[in-house]
Amino acid sequence: MSDTVDPLVPRPIDLPTAVDLHGPLTAELVDRMDDAKIFAAPDREDAVAAWRARLTEWRAASRDRIGYDGRIYDEPGAAWAARCHAVAQVWLWDELLYDAEAATFTPDRFLADARERFGGLDAVVLWHAYPVIGVDERNQWDWYRDVPGLRTLVDQLHHAGLRVFVDYNPWDVGTRRAGDDLDELASLVADLDADGVFLDTLRKADPELVEALRGVRPGIVLEGESKLAVERIGDHATSWAQFFADSAVPGVLRAHWFERRHMQHHTRRWHRDHAEELQSAWLNGVGVMVWEVVFGVWVGWNPRDAATARRMLTVQRATDELLLRGDWTPLAPLATQAPGVHASRFALDGVELWALVNRGQHDVTGAVLPPGTDGTVVDLTAAPDHDQTAGGEHVQLPAEGIAAVLVLRPGAPEPSWLPDLRAAMRGLDHVPDARFRHRVAGRVGTTAPPVTNGAAIEGETVVVPAGPWVLTVRYRARETGMYQGAPYVDEWKPLPPRLHDPRTLQRDGVQDAPVAVGADEVSNREFARFLEATGYRPATPNRFLLHWSDGRPVPGHEDDPVVHVDLADARAYCAWRGGRLPTEDEWQLAAHTGRLRRRAPLVWNWTDSEHTDGRTRFAMLKGGADHLAQGSDWYFDGGPQPPEVTAKLLLPGLGLARSRWIGFRCAWVIQEERP
Q: Smallest Cα–Cα separation from 185: which of 171, 167, 200?
C-alpha cells in the first residue's frame, strides 16, 4: 500500500466542495458545483447568507443548462421515493429475514427488529448474488429466480408497507449467458413486482436500461451508488450518499438541493459511528441506508445511532410536506453560540420545523431559537415535562445528537398530524451509548461421531495424527472477511491493494485423537448407494443432484465427485458411513501429506466449518475447482488451489448452496490401540 494513502481519511473525491462566493457565477463555476457531493459550508457566519444565495443561483443556472423538467417526480409510480427515508440493505439469507433451521423466510421478525431499533423501514434492497456469485455458472438472474417463494416474500414486504428494490450487477459478464441485461432485468422487475432497482457499482443507468424498465414499470425508481450527475437527476429518483464527507460546519447535499424530491440515503458501510451522516441527513431532510451486515460481516449500528435514527425518522415521516415543499433555510441563525450547534429551518403556511444538531461533546439546554421567535414552540424530542414552551427557552440538544423543534406562528392552525407525532415521540429518548456491539461467529452443526476402528477404512483414507499443529492459511481479502470481525474498520472505500489482495493467517490447535480423512471425494456412484440404502430425501429438494438424470448418475460420470449437495446432504452421507465431514484444518493437514487425491473434475470441498454469528452463516471451502468465473474481481474464488488456500462461502438457503462445483469427502475419528 502506498505510504501516502490513509484508509481512515476521506479520499479527495469524498471531500465536500468549497463554494466560491466571489464574482459572477461563471460556466466554469457551475461545472465545478455540478460535480459536488456536498457543498461545504462557509467557516464564517457572516458568509452564510451569501453562500445560500450562491447555492440558489447555481441551482437555477444548472437547471437551465440541462433543460430540467423533473417529470419523473410527477409520475404517480415514483412519488413514494421522495418519502423513502429509511432503506435497509439486506442479504436474502440474513438470519433475521431467513430461518435456516426452519428453511423459511421470516419477514415479520426482520421488520419487528427494524421497528424496535430504528423506527421502521420504508424500503429494502434484497441483496442476492454477490459475494457467492461465481462459485459456479449461475448468473445474477439465476440467484433470484432459483429462490423458492421469493415472490411471496416480496408480496409480504409490500403488505407490510415497504417498497422493494432488486439488485443489478452490471459487472456480471463471466457466468452463464442468457438474454441481454435489459431484457433480463426488465423481466425480473415484472415477475417480482419490484418497485426499484439498486445499481450496484453504478452511479447511473444507461438511458436504454431506464427506458426498458419504464416499459414494464412506469415510474420505476433507480438508485445509483454514490454521486449522481445533475443530468440524470431527472430519471433517477434516489441515490446513495455513500462515502460523503461533510464540512466542519454541516453542508448541503448537492443533488437534494437541485431537486428537493430527489431522495438520498447516507451510508458509510464500514463505519461504527454514524453520527455525522445522520446529522447531515437530518439537516438536509433526506434519509439513511441501514446496512448492518456488509456481505456477511457484522457492522451493526451502536445504540446511540440507532436511537437517533428512530427519532429522526419518526419526525421526518410526519413532516414530509414541510421537508418537500417548505421554504428550506440551511444553517438558519440561532440564539445559542454553543460550538457545534447548527440548524435547518423548513417553513410552510406558518408552521416551521427546526432540525437541530449538536456536533459537540456536551449537552446544550436552553434558548436555542433566535430572538423574536413568537408563537407556540414544541420541542418534539425533549422529555415529556419540557416538550412545550412559550419561546423555546428549554430546548434540549444532546451531545452528538439531534433535536426537532416545531414552531406554530401566531394564527397558524395546529397541523392535523401533530397529536399523533407527539404521541409517537414519547419514550424515544436520546441514548448516549455509542459502544459497538461485537458479534462472535461460532461453529455450529458439528456432532461427535462414533470412534472408528482404523483398520476398517485403512485403504481409503489419509491419517492425521493426534497432537498439536500449526497451519498457515492463505486467502484472498474480500469484503466477506474471514472468521471474525470486519476486514475494514472505520475505513472509507477500500481499494486495491487492500481489497482482493492475498493474505495469510495462522491457525493452531491440538488433535485429541487421530483423524482419517477420505483420500478421495465421495463419488456419484457412492452417493447413489447411500440413497438406495437409506431412502434419504432432503427437507428442501431444490437443486438436489441437479446434474443427475432420472434420479441416477449420468452414464460415464459415476466416478466423478458428487456435487449439487449441501452441508446437510454431505453430513447425512458421512453419518451413514460412521463418520463426519473433516474440518477445514483436518482437510489441510491431510492434504499436506501429499496423499490426498482429487477426482476429476476438480471441485471445492465442503468442510465441517459451518459458523453463524446470529445474522450470517458461512462455511470454509478447500481445494479449489476447475471452474473459474472471469471478467470481474467481485466473483467468488475459482481455479485449482493449493492445500493452504481457504475460501469463505456465505451460506444461502432453500437449496441454493448446492453447486455444480462443490463436493465433499468424509472423515473418521480413529480409536487408538492401547498397549
A: 167
- Enumerate the H helices of 21-75 as residue ranges: 27-34, 48-66
Give the whole-angstrom CA distance, residue 614 versus residue 49: 51
Three cell numbers at 325? Answer: 415543499
197: burial class by Cβ within 10 Å (0-12, 13-18, 19+)?
buried
pTM value > 0.90: yes
Determine the Cα–Cα distance for residues 663 and 562; give it in Å rounded to an integer.
6
Q: What angle do CA 108, 112, 116 make, to 5 degrees?
A: 175
Cell 443507468, residue?
A: 205
**Interval 164-179 mean pLDDT:** 97
Cα–Cα distance for residue pair 482/494, rounded to 1 Å: 16
Instruction: Quote the CA–CA distance of 350 and 152 in Å, as a whole number.
Output: 45
Other CB atoms closer than 10 Å to residue 70's CB: what's the count? 14
C-alpha cell at position 323: 421537508
DSSP state, residue 411: T
Q: Judge whether residue 69 has pLDDT over 50.
A: yes
| Residue 387 confidence class, pLDDT cut points 50, 70, 90 | very low
Strands of the 327-330 sheet, one edge to the other: 327-330, 341-348, 351-358, 402-408, 376-379, 388-389
606-658 per-position pLDDT tens digit: 999 999 999 999 999 999 999 999 999 999 999 999 999 999 999 999 999 99
> Residues 332, 343: contact at Cβ < 8 Å?
yes
Q: How far is C-alpha 54 from the chain's CA centre? A: 36
- pLDDT tens for 208-233 read 999 999 999 999 999 999 999 999 99
Judge whether 252 and 284 are in contact, CB under 8 Å.
yes
